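Input sequence (448 aa), recorded before submission:
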Amino acid sequence: MEKMKVEILSRKTIKPSVPTPHHLRTFNLSVLDQDVLAIHYGSVVFFYPSDTSTSLSISQKSHSLKNSLSKILLHFYPLAGQVKDAVTIECNDQGACFIEAISGCQLKDFLTHPDPDRLKELVPSTDPKTIRSTLACILLVQLTSFACGGTAVAVSVSQKFADASSFCTFMQSWTAMSGREYGRVVMPKLVGASLLPPLDTLITSIPPPTTRNCKTKRFVFHESQIANLKAQVAAAMEQQHQQQHRVTNVEIVLAIILRCAAAASQSKHGTSRSRKSALLNVVNLRRRMVPPLPGNAIGNLIWKYAVMFQESDVELHQLVSKMKDEFTNVCNDKLKRIKSKKGYKDVRDSRKQIAQLLNGKLADMNTYTCTNLCSYPFHEMDFGWGKPVWLTSPSNFKNLIVLLDSKWGGIEAWVTLDEVEMAIFERDQELLAVASLNPSALINYSRM
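Predicted structure, token format:
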């Protein structure tokens, strides 16, 4: 398939519909935001078929997006500001960057075999010129129209300000505003430093992830395959007399990916010495805080933790047990004291461990990171011309695993590995017995 050509037509700044009041011009971030790099963006691309029900033109859709974005930024005003330093956003109404682009290809041709390299052209946070011209922008949006009339709306939000739940809350409110369903607009609760004030000094310096010599592939795990693996894992855990907990779809998919990725790494290095591995995962703090936070609380309200394992314990039931044990430990121990002095020590210790795992200086160690977007209603995001036919969250950071709900059931996994390891991983017969390698994202859409 020839390279998709995307031409950027314009770059504009969208400011809040009403200036931010002076007393709200400084937004103080929490200790959980403090060491997150502002240049790291979380991105989701939503694909929409050509619209026959409302007959909106591309220019009308563009106007609706920009107009509704301006209105919703009134409430999500830090998104229109600039990151001033590690603990502060200057809410100066600089605005969000809105890019309009056009592609000469058909949407159905692109979605038949989604290509991670071609996806980059649809994402504003991966365009060097955009980044240079919008330095310190927290929110970037790109509307790309295809030859068939279909569209892609890519939204990139700095991870300095928002986790996956915050991103979803913003998208729910923006799409509701755009579709004029004002009763669905969710007002954000901007907690920031009022919840957990930042420390006087930076906790630790976490190195930026590498993208060099990496390859990204998409795998789709269908519901029936996941159900079979869950039954096998449950039976194995029962034989080992392990405490029974409900095994989740995400745990099963992560376990098989980690098992095969660890095997690929071991094969590449060709050593008889067992390599160690770590999975960096997160817990959503909102409903686990005491008292719990509302679902519309905005920020990096997550706890990052590491699950350690090695080649000798990568049976699926062992990996699932390790994930559950560490998750339970975080929820029952660390989260209960997070607001205390001991809790701040836990934050420091956790971030130091993560920095050590990510700096690449530990011998015979692989560190994998999971971005889990499952269970969020991203497939419901309707700007006023229908729900997306497909969506994805592209990234090419080494050893990153991105999980999303498949519209047709099951889970889509985007896995990025060292290119040599990926060549081994993508041919792993155990993996291919339960997952399809980059199948079509379409079933039957004639409007593309």
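Checked by second reader. The CA atoms of residues 104 and 174 lie 28 Å apart.
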